Amino acid sequence: MQNHIRPWRNIDRRVSRKIHVGSVPVGGDAPISVQTMTNTLTHDAKATIAQVLACAEAGADIVRVSCPDEASTAALHEIVRESPVPIVADIHFHYKRAIEAAEAGAACLRINPGNIGSPERVREVIKAAKDHGCSMRIGVNAGSLERHLLEKYGEPCPDAMVESGLDHIKLLQDNDFHEFKISVKASDVFLASAAYMAIAEATDAPLHLGITEAGSHYAGTVKSAIGMGNLLWAGIGDTIRVSLSADPVEEIKAGFEILKSLGLRHRGVNIISCPSCARQGFDVIATVAELEQRLEHVKTPMSLSIIGCVVNGPGEALMTDVGFTGGGNGAGMVYMAGKQDHKQGNAGMIDHIVELVEKRAVQIEAERDAAREAAE
Ligand code: SF4
Protein backbone atom coordinates (compact mmCIF):
# COMPACT_ATOMS: atom_id res chain seq x y z
CA MET A 1 0.00 0.00 0.00
CA GLN A 2 1.32 3.43 -0.91
CA ASN A 3 1.96 5.84 1.96
CA HIS A 4 0.82 9.27 0.72
CA ILE A 5 1.49 11.08 3.98
CA ARG A 6 5.06 9.76 4.30
CA PRO A 7 6.09 8.98 0.71
CA TRP A 8 9.70 8.40 1.76
CA ARG A 9 8.51 5.13 3.26
CA ASN A 10 7.22 3.75 -0.02
CA ILE A 11 8.80 0.70 -1.60
CA ASP A 12 7.68 -0.08 -5.15
CA ARG A 13 7.86 -3.84 -5.49
CA ARG A 14 9.09 -5.32 -8.72
CA VAL A 15 6.22 -6.85 -10.65
CA SER A 16 6.65 -10.61 -10.66
CA ARG A 17 4.51 -13.53 -11.70
CA LYS A 18 2.60 -15.16 -8.86
CA ILE A 19 3.19 -18.85 -8.19
CA HIS A 20 2.17 -21.08 -5.30
CA VAL A 21 4.15 -23.12 -2.85
CA GLY A 22 1.29 -25.25 -1.61
CA SER A 23 -1.16 -22.83 -0.05
CA VAL A 24 1.33 -19.96 0.10
CA PRO A 25 1.34 -17.53 -2.83
CA VAL A 26 4.77 -16.24 -3.81
CA GLY A 27 5.25 -13.24 -6.09
CA GLY A 28 2.79 -10.78 -7.51
CA ASP A 29 0.98 -8.94 -4.72
CA ALA A 30 1.52 -11.75 -2.18
CA PRO A 31 3.14 -10.79 1.13
CA ILE A 32 6.87 -11.53 1.19
CA SER A 33 7.07 -14.96 2.78
CA VAL A 34 9.67 -16.02 5.30
CA GLN A 35 11.19 -19.45 5.12
CA THR A 36 13.87 -21.56 6.70
CA MET A 37 15.34 -25.02 6.46
CA THR A 38 15.47 -27.81 9.01
CA ASN A 39 18.86 -29.14 10.12
CA THR A 40 17.69 -32.44 11.58
CA LEU A 41 18.23 -35.72 9.74
CA THR A 42 15.16 -35.75 7.51
CA HIS A 43 14.76 -39.52 7.86
CA ASP A 44 14.23 -38.87 11.57
CA ALA A 45 10.66 -37.78 10.94
CA LYS A 46 9.88 -37.16 14.61
CA ALA A 47 12.79 -34.75 15.12
CA THR A 48 12.16 -33.05 11.78
CA ILE A 49 8.45 -32.57 12.50
CA ALA A 50 9.30 -31.08 15.91
CA GLN A 51 11.60 -28.57 14.23
CA VAL A 52 9.06 -27.76 11.49
CA LEU A 53 6.43 -27.10 14.19
CA ALA A 54 8.80 -24.84 16.14
CA CYS A 55 9.56 -22.87 12.96
CA ALA A 56 5.87 -22.59 12.08
CA GLU A 57 5.13 -21.39 15.60
CA ALA A 58 7.81 -18.71 15.14
CA GLY A 59 6.02 -17.57 11.98
CA ALA A 60 7.62 -19.56 9.14
CA ASP A 61 5.43 -19.49 6.05
CA ILE A 62 7.36 -22.27 4.31
CA VAL A 63 9.93 -24.82 5.55
CA ARG A 64 12.49 -26.66 3.44
CA VAL A 65 13.91 -30.07 4.27
CA SER A 66 16.89 -31.70 2.70
CA CYS A 67 16.31 -34.96 0.81
CA PRO A 68 19.73 -36.51 0.22
CA ASP A 69 18.56 -40.15 0.20
CA GLU A 70 15.60 -42.47 -0.17
CA ALA A 71 15.05 -42.69 3.59
CA SER A 72 14.51 -38.92 3.61
CA THR A 73 11.91 -38.90 0.85
CA ALA A 74 10.23 -41.85 2.58
CA ALA A 75 9.96 -39.78 5.79
CA LEU A 76 8.58 -36.86 3.80
CA HIS A 77 5.06 -38.37 3.70
CA GLU A 78 4.76 -38.13 7.46
CA ILE A 79 6.51 -34.74 7.66
CA VAL A 80 4.16 -33.24 5.06
CA ARG A 81 1.14 -34.73 6.80
CA GLU A 82 2.08 -33.25 10.19
CA SER A 83 3.31 -29.86 8.96
CA PRO A 84 1.04 -26.83 9.21
CA VAL A 85 3.08 -25.09 6.49
CA PRO A 86 4.11 -26.16 2.96
CA ILE A 87 7.26 -28.25 2.76
CA VAL A 88 9.93 -27.72 0.12
CA ALA A 89 12.13 -30.70 -0.72
CA ASP A 90 15.76 -29.81 -1.28
CA ILE A 91 17.18 -32.02 -4.02
CA HIS A 92 20.63 -32.10 -5.55
CA PHE A 93 21.27 -34.14 -8.68
CA HIS A 94 19.19 -37.24 -7.89
CA TYR A 95 16.16 -37.05 -10.15
CA LYS A 96 14.57 -40.03 -8.44
CA ARG A 97 14.56 -38.19 -5.09
CA ALA A 98 12.71 -35.36 -6.83
CA ILE A 99 10.05 -37.70 -8.16
CA GLU A 100 9.71 -39.40 -4.77
CA ALA A 101 9.44 -36.02 -3.02
CA ALA A 102 6.71 -34.87 -5.41
CA GLU A 103 4.84 -38.11 -4.79
CA ALA A 104 5.27 -37.69 -1.02
CA GLY A 105 3.45 -34.36 -1.10
CA ALA A 106 6.25 -31.79 -1.19
CA ALA A 107 4.78 -28.41 -2.16
CA CYS A 108 7.91 -27.36 -4.03
CA LEU A 109 11.15 -28.91 -5.26
CA ARG A 110 14.36 -26.99 -4.89
CA ILE A 111 16.25 -28.39 -7.83
CA ASN A 112 18.32 -27.19 -10.74
CA PRO A 113 16.96 -28.88 -13.86
CA GLY A 114 20.32 -28.50 -15.59
CA ASN A 115 21.87 -30.80 -13.00
CA ILE A 116 19.35 -33.62 -13.32
CA GLY A 117 20.93 -35.25 -16.34
CA SER A 118 19.33 -36.33 -19.62
CA PRO A 119 16.37 -34.46 -21.15
CA GLU A 120 14.28 -37.57 -20.47
CA ARG A 121 15.00 -37.33 -16.72
CA VAL A 122 14.19 -33.62 -16.75
CA ARG A 123 10.86 -34.43 -18.39
CA GLU A 124 10.13 -37.11 -15.80
CA VAL A 125 10.76 -34.72 -12.90
CA ILE A 126 8.64 -32.00 -14.49
CA LYS A 127 5.85 -34.50 -15.11
CA ALA A 128 5.95 -35.58 -11.44
CA ALA A 129 5.83 -31.93 -10.35
CA LYS A 130 2.87 -31.24 -12.63
CA ASP A 131 1.04 -34.41 -11.58
CA HIS A 132 1.39 -33.58 -7.89
CA GLY A 133 0.93 -29.79 -8.00
CA CYS A 134 4.53 -29.01 -7.03
CA SER A 135 6.23 -25.77 -7.86
CA MET A 136 10.01 -25.56 -8.20
CA ARG A 137 12.81 -23.31 -7.11
CA ILE A 138 15.85 -22.99 -9.27
CA GLY A 139 18.69 -22.38 -6.84
CA VAL A 140 21.73 -20.84 -8.49
CA ASN A 141 24.63 -20.57 -6.09
CA ALA A 142 27.91 -18.73 -6.76
CA GLY A 143 29.75 -21.59 -5.08
CA SER A 144 28.45 -24.29 -7.39
CA LEU A 145 28.27 -22.73 -10.85
CA GLU A 146 28.54 -25.01 -13.86
CA ARG A 147 32.10 -25.59 -15.04
CA HIS A 148 31.52 -24.21 -18.54
CA LEU A 149 30.33 -20.92 -17.04
CA LEU A 150 33.34 -20.66 -14.76
CA GLU A 151 35.57 -21.27 -17.77
CA LYS A 152 33.68 -18.69 -19.81
CA TYR A 153 33.62 -15.97 -17.13
CA GLY A 154 36.79 -16.87 -15.21
CA GLU A 155 35.13 -16.67 -11.76
CA PRO A 156 31.65 -16.52 -10.20
CA CYS A 157 30.19 -13.17 -11.28
CA PRO A 158 26.67 -11.75 -11.75
CA ASP A 159 26.63 -12.46 -15.51
CA ALA A 160 27.60 -16.10 -14.95
CA MET A 161 24.91 -16.52 -12.30
CA VAL A 162 22.24 -14.95 -14.48
CA GLU A 163 23.26 -17.09 -17.45
CA SER A 164 23.07 -20.19 -15.27
CA GLY A 165 19.63 -19.17 -14.02
CA LEU A 166 18.31 -18.46 -17.50
CA ASP A 167 19.63 -21.82 -18.77
CA HIS A 168 17.71 -23.63 -16.01
CA ILE A 169 14.61 -21.51 -16.66
CA LYS A 170 14.73 -22.43 -20.35
CA LEU A 171 14.68 -26.13 -19.54
CA LEU A 172 11.49 -25.66 -17.53
CA GLN A 173 9.84 -23.37 -20.04
CA ASP A 174 10.69 -25.69 -22.94
CA ASN A 175 8.69 -28.30 -21.05
CA ASP A 176 5.82 -25.88 -20.52
CA PHE A 177 6.49 -25.58 -16.78
CA HIS A 178 6.02 -22.11 -15.34
CA GLU A 179 5.38 -22.60 -11.60
CA PHE A 180 8.91 -21.74 -10.59
CA LYS A 181 10.85 -19.16 -8.63
CA ILE A 182 14.56 -18.58 -8.68
CA SER A 183 17.39 -17.62 -6.37
CA VAL A 184 20.90 -16.45 -7.23
CA LYS A 185 22.66 -16.69 -3.90
CA ALA A 186 26.20 -15.85 -2.93
CA SER A 187 27.89 -15.40 0.42
CA ASP A 188 29.35 -12.12 -0.83
CA VAL A 189 26.77 -9.35 -0.50
CA PHE A 190 28.08 -7.41 -3.52
CA LEU A 191 27.90 -10.46 -5.78
CA ALA A 192 24.49 -11.57 -4.50
CA SER A 193 23.00 -8.08 -4.83
CA ALA A 194 24.32 -7.55 -8.34
CA ALA A 195 23.16 -11.00 -9.43
CA TYR A 196 19.66 -10.49 -8.00
CA MET A 197 19.37 -7.06 -9.61
CA ALA A 198 20.33 -8.51 -12.97
CA ILE A 199 18.05 -11.55 -12.76
CA ALA A 200 15.19 -9.29 -11.65
CA GLU A 201 15.52 -7.54 -15.02
CA ALA A 202 15.89 -10.75 -17.01
CA THR A 203 12.79 -12.66 -15.83
CA ASP A 204 9.39 -12.07 -14.28
CA ALA A 205 9.75 -15.18 -12.09
CA PRO A 206 9.34 -14.57 -8.36
CA LEU A 207 12.66 -14.27 -6.55
CA HIS A 208 13.72 -16.17 -3.46
CA LEU A 209 16.31 -14.00 -1.69
CA GLY A 210 19.18 -15.23 0.37
CA ILE A 211 22.75 -14.43 1.31
CA THR A 212 24.06 -17.95 1.48
CA GLU A 213 26.34 -19.21 4.25
CA ALA A 214 25.97 -15.83 5.90
CA GLY A 215 27.66 -16.97 9.11
CA SER A 216 26.86 -17.06 12.80
CA HIS A 217 23.66 -15.81 14.38
CA TYR A 218 24.97 -12.29 14.97
CA ALA A 219 27.31 -11.76 12.00
CA GLY A 220 25.01 -13.60 9.59
CA THR A 221 21.99 -11.56 10.61
CA VAL A 222 23.87 -8.30 10.00
CA LYS A 223 25.18 -9.53 6.65
CA SER A 224 21.74 -10.76 5.56
CA ALA A 225 20.12 -7.51 6.63
CA ILE A 226 22.58 -5.56 4.51
CA GLY A 227 22.38 -7.82 1.44
CA MET A 228 18.68 -8.59 1.49
CA GLY A 229 17.71 -5.23 2.95
CA ASN A 230 19.30 -3.48 0.02
CA LEU A 231 17.34 -5.62 -2.45
CA LEU A 232 14.04 -5.52 -0.57
CA TRP A 233 14.32 -1.75 -0.29
CA ALA A 234 14.70 -1.65 -4.08
CA GLY A 235 11.49 -3.69 -4.34
CA ILE A 236 13.23 -6.95 -5.24
CA GLY A 237 12.33 -10.21 -3.51
CA ASP A 238 9.18 -12.27 -3.01
CA THR A 239 10.29 -14.78 -0.38
CA ILE A 240 13.33 -14.76 1.88
CA ARG A 241 15.53 -17.10 3.84
CA VAL A 242 18.16 -15.89 6.26
CA SER A 243 20.91 -18.55 6.33
CA LEU A 244 22.50 -18.71 9.76
CA SER A 245 24.72 -21.19 11.53
CA ALA A 246 22.04 -21.21 14.22
CA ASP A 247 18.68 -22.70 15.15
CA PRO A 248 16.24 -22.35 12.19
CA VAL A 249 13.84 -20.53 14.53
CA GLU A 250 16.44 -17.76 14.73
CA GLU A 251 16.42 -17.52 10.93
CA ILE A 252 12.69 -16.92 11.01
CA LYS A 253 13.01 -14.26 13.69
CA ALA A 254 15.79 -12.52 11.74
CA GLY A 255 13.75 -12.69 8.51
CA PHE A 256 10.78 -11.02 10.14
CA GLU A 257 12.96 -8.36 11.72
CA ILE A 258 14.39 -7.47 8.31
CA LEU A 259 10.91 -7.23 6.79
CA LYS A 260 9.57 -5.34 9.81
CA SER A 261 12.38 -2.78 9.57
CA LEU A 262 11.28 -2.00 6.03
CA GLY A 263 7.57 -2.05 6.81
CA LEU A 264 7.11 -5.00 4.44
CA ARG A 265 5.61 -7.43 6.98
CA HIS A 266 4.37 -6.98 10.50
CA ARG A 267 4.27 -9.69 13.11
CA GLY A 268 4.45 -9.59 16.86
CA VAL A 269 5.58 -6.81 19.14
CA ASN A 270 8.00 -4.31 17.69
CA ILE A 271 9.96 -3.07 20.71
CA ILE A 272 11.45 0.38 20.42
CA SER A 273 13.99 0.88 23.18
CA CYS A 274 16.81 3.26 23.94
CA PRO A 275 20.42 2.13 24.45
CA SER A 276 20.25 3.47 28.05
CA CYS A 277 22.69 5.82 29.77
CA ALA A 278 23.27 7.48 33.14
CA ARG A 279 19.86 9.16 32.89
CA GLN A 280 17.89 5.91 32.85
CA GLY A 281 15.19 5.61 35.49
CA PHE A 282 15.29 1.79 35.42
CA ASP A 283 17.47 -0.97 33.98
CA VAL A 284 16.52 -0.64 30.29
CA ILE A 285 18.71 -3.41 28.93
CA ALA A 286 17.59 -6.12 31.37
CA THR A 287 13.95 -5.01 31.05
CA VAL A 288 13.95 -5.15 27.25
CA ALA A 289 15.65 -8.56 27.23
CA GLU A 290 12.99 -9.97 29.57
CA LEU A 291 10.10 -8.31 27.75
CA GLU A 292 11.32 -9.59 24.39
CA GLN A 293 11.30 -13.11 25.74
CA ARG A 294 7.98 -12.83 27.59
CA LEU A 295 6.20 -11.27 24.60
CA GLU A 296 7.45 -13.79 22.05
CA HIS A 297 4.05 -15.51 22.01
CA VAL A 298 2.20 -12.37 20.86
CA LYS A 299 1.66 -12.59 17.10
CA THR A 300 -0.48 -9.47 16.69
CA PRO A 301 1.49 -6.67 15.05
CA MET A 302 1.88 -3.86 17.57
CA SER A 303 4.49 -1.53 19.01
CA LEU A 304 5.93 -1.01 22.47
CA SER A 305 8.36 1.70 23.54
CA ILE A 306 10.61 1.14 26.52
CA ILE A 307 12.63 4.29 27.09
CA GLY A 308 14.91 5.09 30.00
CA CYS A 309 13.96 8.71 30.62
CA VAL A 310 11.92 11.71 29.51
CA VAL A 311 14.57 12.89 27.02
CA ASN A 312 13.10 10.59 24.33
CA GLY A 313 10.37 8.67 26.14
CA PRO A 314 7.29 10.83 25.46
CA GLY A 315 8.27 11.36 21.81
CA GLU A 316 8.73 7.65 21.14
CA ALA A 317 5.56 6.77 23.08
CA LEU A 318 3.58 9.05 20.76
CA MET A 319 3.98 6.53 17.96
CA THR A 320 3.45 3.29 19.89
CA ASP A 321 0.51 1.25 21.17
CA VAL A 322 2.00 0.90 24.65
CA GLY A 323 4.89 2.85 26.13
CA PHE A 324 6.87 3.12 29.34
CA THR A 325 9.19 5.99 30.14
CA GLY A 326 11.45 5.95 33.17
CA GLY A 327 11.06 8.73 35.73
CA GLY A 328 12.30 9.59 39.22
CA ASN A 329 11.70 7.94 42.59
CA GLY A 330 11.57 4.40 41.24
CA ALA A 331 8.52 4.92 39.01
CA GLY A 332 7.76 5.80 35.40
CA MET A 333 4.91 6.79 33.12
CA VAL A 334 2.79 4.38 31.10
CA TYR A 335 1.47 5.60 27.75
CA MET A 336 -1.43 4.06 25.90
CA ALA A 337 -1.85 4.87 22.20
CA GLY A 338 0.60 7.74 22.56
CA LYS A 339 -1.10 9.40 25.54
CA GLN A 340 0.06 9.59 29.17
CA ASP A 341 -2.10 7.10 31.05
CA HIS A 342 -0.87 6.29 34.54
CA LYS A 343 2.19 6.00 36.76
CA GLN A 344 3.77 2.64 37.44
CA GLY A 345 6.47 1.72 39.92
CA ASN A 346 9.59 0.07 38.52
CA ALA A 347 8.88 -2.92 40.74
CA GLY A 348 6.29 -5.05 38.98
CA MET A 349 6.61 -2.99 35.81
CA ILE A 350 7.48 -5.95 33.56
CA ASP A 351 4.41 -7.97 34.64
CA HIS A 352 2.27 -4.88 34.19
CA ILE A 353 3.57 -4.14 30.67
CA VAL A 354 3.15 -7.78 29.61
CA GLU A 355 -0.46 -7.65 30.78
CA LEU A 356 -1.13 -4.37 28.96
CA VAL A 357 0.39 -5.66 25.73
CA GLU A 358 -1.57 -8.91 25.89
CA LYS A 359 -4.82 -6.99 26.48
CA ARG A 360 -4.08 -4.55 23.68
CA ALA A 361 -3.34 -7.47 21.33
CA VAL A 362 -6.77 -8.95 22.07
CA GLN A 363 -8.36 -5.55 21.38
CA ILE A 364 -6.49 -5.12 18.09
CA GLU A 365 -7.60 -8.59 16.95
CA ALA A 366 -11.22 -7.82 17.90
CA GLU A 367 -11.09 -4.49 16.03
CA ARG A 368 -9.62 -6.23 13.01
CA ASP A 369 -12.32 -8.94 13.05
CA ALA A 370 -15.04 -6.30 13.35
CA ALA A 371 -13.59 -4.33 10.44
CA ARG A 372 -13.40 -7.51 8.35
CA GLU A 373 -17.01 -8.39 9.14
CA ALA A 374 -18.14 -4.85 8.32
CA ALA A 375 -16.31 -5.00 5.00
CA GLU A 376 -18.00 -8.29 4.14
S1 SF4 B 1 16.28 8.04 26.44
FE1 SF4 B 1 17.20 8.80 28.32
S2 SF4 B 1 18.05 6.98 29.29
FE2 SF4 B 1 17.65 6.41 27.18
S3 SF4 B 1 19.61 6.77 26.20
FE3 SF4 B 1 18.36 8.61 25.91
S4 SF4 B 1 18.95 9.95 27.58
FE4 SF4 B 1 19.68 7.91 28.12
Describe the structure.
The protein has 376 residues and is of the alpha/beta class. The chain has two domains: 12-261, Dihydropteroate synthase-like (TIM Barrel, Alpha-Beta Barrel), CATH 3.20.20.20; 269-375, 2-Layer Sandwich (Sulfite Reductase Hemoprotein, domain 1), CATH 3.30.413.10. The chain is 43% helix and 19% strand. It is built from twelve helices and 15 strands. The chain has helices at residues 45-57, 70-82, 95-104, 119-131, 147-153, 158-174, 189-202, 217-233, 248-261, 284-294, 313-317, 349-375, and strands at residues 19-21, 24-26, 33-37, 62-66, 87-90, 108-110, 135-141, 180-185, 208-209, 239-241, 269-273, 302-307, 322-326, 331-336, 339-345. The strands form three sheets. It has an eight-stranded parallel β-sheet. A five-stranded mixed β-sheet has the order 11-12-13-14-15. Helix 2 packs parallel to helix 3. The radius of gyration is 23 Å and the shape is elongated. The chain starts with 18 loop residues before the first strand and ends with a helix. The mean pLDDT is 95. Iron/sulfur cluster binds at residues 274-277, 279-280, 307-309, 311-312.
